[in-house]
Amino acid sequence: KPSAAEAPDRLPFSRVTQEDLAFFRKTLLGRAITDSDFLESSNVDWLKSVKGSSEVLLRPQNTKEVSQVLRYCNSRNLAVTPQGGNTGLVGGSVPVYDEIILSTALMNNILAFDNISGILTCQAGCVLENLSLYLEERDYIMPLDLGAKGSCQIGGNVATNAGGLRLLRYGSLHGTVLGLEVVLADGRVLDCLSTLRKDNTGYDLKQLFIGSEGTLGVITAVSILCPRKPKSVNLVFLGCETFEQLLKTFQLCRGMLGEILSAFEFLDSECMRLLNTHLKLPNPISDCPFYIVIETSGSNPTHDGQKLHNFLEEAMTSSLVTDGTVATEESKIKALWSMRERITEALTHDGFNYKYDISLPVERIYQLVTDMREHLGDQAKSVVGYGHIGDGNLHLNITSPAKDPALLGAIEPFVYEWTARCKGSISAEHGLGLKKRNYIYYSKSSQAVALMGNIKAILDPKGILNPYKTLPDALK
Ligand code: FAD
Q: Contact at 8 Å (CB) between 67 and 187?
């Protein structure tokens, strides 16, 4: 199985017995699944690159059930993998061996929404898109949006500290999440489900769980600050001849669009080729080496339209961009967004994917793609670059017709050493999961990683929560 090569040996956890199953069946009444067809999809990640062999999928409906299950698993030394929408890209959401899968899919109730403050409180299994639809009816939006919105869950988003397409405007979940309820490994319920914007009473414990990838506790409920739905949204799709021009356009755009800028994304011509070839999405403008997606959101269509017009005029007359199109209607906005959002999907049709999610100083972002192409020569099928320019986040993706250990050897550690030299991060938003755990030292000091190990030992002394993930196999 693919994961074994990348994983350490199975740790000495107990194996699930008939008595264990009897306990789960009694506690969860029909929601302890052992049917192999049902388990098949929960054992494999979205990229189909990691496969576990769990024989039990548990589907609790509330915090009490999560607590009962974890208390039991901890006492029996049974390992558990928390799972949300299973759209994670680093192999964190599926078991490596026979860990019990604890799914939050049935914990999908909205608990409260305050129409004045815009604070939403919900269970962890709510699907992001459903939350967005709920809020839009009330004139609000979620502060995050990502291509996987139709499947990913808010608990998974928090557990991975997902970034996505709106981070530039609304900031990271470390700022917008106001409170969390978490069940610890031994079943204790940690109630930090505050709905306050300001609360300096001691350590902000919820922050520990944001981005902890299921290794410190199971998030069962989230409260989050939501922005008002903008009255005016525009989307612009532009083409540039060089990456330098793209960066200058970014600078110009920040200056001229100011507070209404809500996204600044890019893709290169190789991404466009894959969108055309695999998804039959036509290029909405003429062919260019680089494309930019700019979104504005504001409260006054005339004001926003005027600002955008001035910006586009300046960008065109100073020859920073060579072609472009603007959308104000929802259907055209969606169509243009899909050019950015569906690149991940187009890549899966191109072959086996090697995915890198890197934070870099913005002016260095594309150099890594160029250097990687030169370094790999014709060993790779495609080498593409896209991502969140506004956040300094590059998605570098490399494909090959099939899994290719020689190609992997050429990519790594080259990509990590390159990133470390620029003091970048080897995981900007996807986390470390199973695949990247041992590369943590390229972006974190050994003191920092050792302290992470101490925190893990306090919160989960038996290490039952998502073993083999996030922390390196051997702590230096
Ligand atoms: P899962 O994949 O189920 O789990 C992810 C991790 O969180 C695992 O380690 C799991 O154990 C843990 N976990 C899940 N739920 C809980 C819980 N309740 N408590 C504790 N731990 C839990 N990511 C971005 O950051 N930005 C993007 O723009 C982006 N775009 C994407 C586009 C596509 C098409 C796809 C497929 C993925 C994309 N991702 C992106 C990655 C992924 O969608 C996010 O990481 C997402 O937040 C994962 O949510 P999930 O519910 O699917 O979690």
A: yes
